[in-house]
Design goal:
The complex is a heterodimer of chains A (114) and B (113). By secondary structure, chain A is an all-beta fold. In chain A, 0% of the residues lie in helices and 54% in strands. In chain B, a hairpin with a 6-residue loop joins strand 4 and strand 5. The chains are: A mainly beta (114), B mainly beta (113).
């Protein structure tokens, strides 16, 4: 089945540092999304990417959709303590029905040291 | 802005019991998705509904069933619960016909003892 490989698995950085994480897939996805999840809470949508090569920013977050549509990266600039959490990439996969589904990467756990 | 509402937030059940999880999508969203997230795992797609009809099906056990009602809320019914069903269950909603962004609820933490 379709799988997303997300790396790194975890990161421990100093406040103020920049962060980069990426996702790769053997399959093409037409849409990539990046979510952040706090412990015990639901994933919160950060950025959605719709076009190959698209570069989108949301505050200190920047994400790009790879040209081949098989990869994406997320950058966080000038990290702050509230950036702590688990970041998931997700590819939108069309199904046999109308709605499709999200296939998630394994997640990147980010810890920020004040 | 209104978000996805899930109830209950926490549920404790015994093995072989049944459980019903409820989801109220964002107003005007017509599509509901259910995901299961085990400890330390990524969310796994279970099932989705569009305009009150089942649309796509993932790795949902036969012991589970779900439906979407006329007011677009959805319920996930889980029977003959097993220890391995202990997980976070998320509902997400989207507006099909628009972009495919799915917005997640806060989840229901199910513990099976």
């Amino acid at each position: 089945g379709q799988q997303l490989n997300q790396s790194p698995q975890s990161m421990f950085i100093q406040e103020g540092e920049d962060v980069s994480m990426n996702c790769t897939s053997s399959s093409i996805f037409n849409t990539w999304l990046w979510y952040k999840q706090d412990p015990g809470e639901g994933p919160v949508l950060l950025i959605a990417l719709y076009k190959a090569g698209e570069l989108t920013s949301n505050g200190r977050l920047t994400a790009q959709f790879g040209i081949t549509r098989k990869d994406s990266f997320l950058n966080i600039s000038a990290s702050i303590p509230s950036d702590v959490g688990i970041y998931f990439c997700a590819g939108f996969s069309t199904g046999s029905g109308n709605t499709g589904k999200l296939i998630f990467g394994q997640g990147t756990t980010l810890q920020v040291k004040p | 802005a209104a978000g996805v509402i899930q109830s209950p937030r926490h549920l404790i059940k015994e093995k072989r019991e049944t459980a019903t999880l409820k989801c109220y999508p964002i107003p005007r969203h017509d599509t509901v998705y259910w995901y299961q997230q085990g400890p330390g795992q990524d969310p796994q797609f279970l099932i989705s509904f569009y305009e009150k009809m089942q649309s796509d099906k993932g790795s949902i056990p036969d012991r589970f069933s779900a439906q979407q009602f006329s007011d677009y809320h959805s319920e996930l019914n889980m029977s003959s619960l097993e220890l391995g069903d202990s997980a976070l269950y998320f509902c997400a909603s989207s507006l099909l016909g628009g972009k495919v962004e799915q917005f997640f609820g806060p989840g229901t933490r199910l513990t099976v003892l």
